[in-house]
Amino acid sequence: MSKLLLIIIAILVLAAGLDGQSGRRKPPLATPTPSPEAKPTETPKQPNANLPQVTAEKNQDYRCTDDGTLAHLIDDPESIKGFQPKEVDTRAEILARPEAKYTEEARRIGVQGLVVLKVLLSPHGEIDRIRVVRRLPYGLTESAIRAACDIKFKPAVKDNQQVAQWISMEYGFSLAKSSIFGP
Question: How far apart are CA 89 and CA 154, in angstroms?
Fold first, then answer.
C-alpha cells in the first residue's frame, strides 16, 4: 500500500514538473457564472443629446424648432410669398440680432468665413424660414441658423397690413476676434 502511495506521489510530482517546465503559468480556467439579465433602462432625454443633427445645405430652407434642432423644409420654395425690402412701404425693423457661436471643432481646425442666410420674417413677428445662401463647414452654418432663429423684429408693412419680408443676414466667423476663452 505504501508502495502504491509512493508511485502515485511520484506520478503527481512528475506531472507537476512537466507542467511547469516552460516557465509560463497557465491561466486558471474561468467558469462562467450566471449573471442577472441586464434590463434596459430609459435614460432621461436631454435637449439636443441624441437627436439627429441636420447638416444645412446651400439653397435649402430650414425652420427653427422649440427644442433647438433644425427642421429641413421640403416644400416648393417658389410657393412661399415674401416681399423684398424695396417692395414694402415700411421695412421690417430688426430689434435684436444674436451673434452666432463658433463651434469647438471649427475653432480647432481654424475655419473662418462668412455664412449668408435669407430669412423670411413673418407678419406675426416670428421667423418663418431660413434659406442658406452661403455655408461653412463644421457646424458654423447651423450655428448661424440657430442665431437667426432668435432674431427679434417688427414686421414689414405694405398697404397698412403687416406682411412677410425676406432679409439677408450675414454671420462672420473670424478667429482674430474670438478667443479660446469665449465666443
Answer: 13
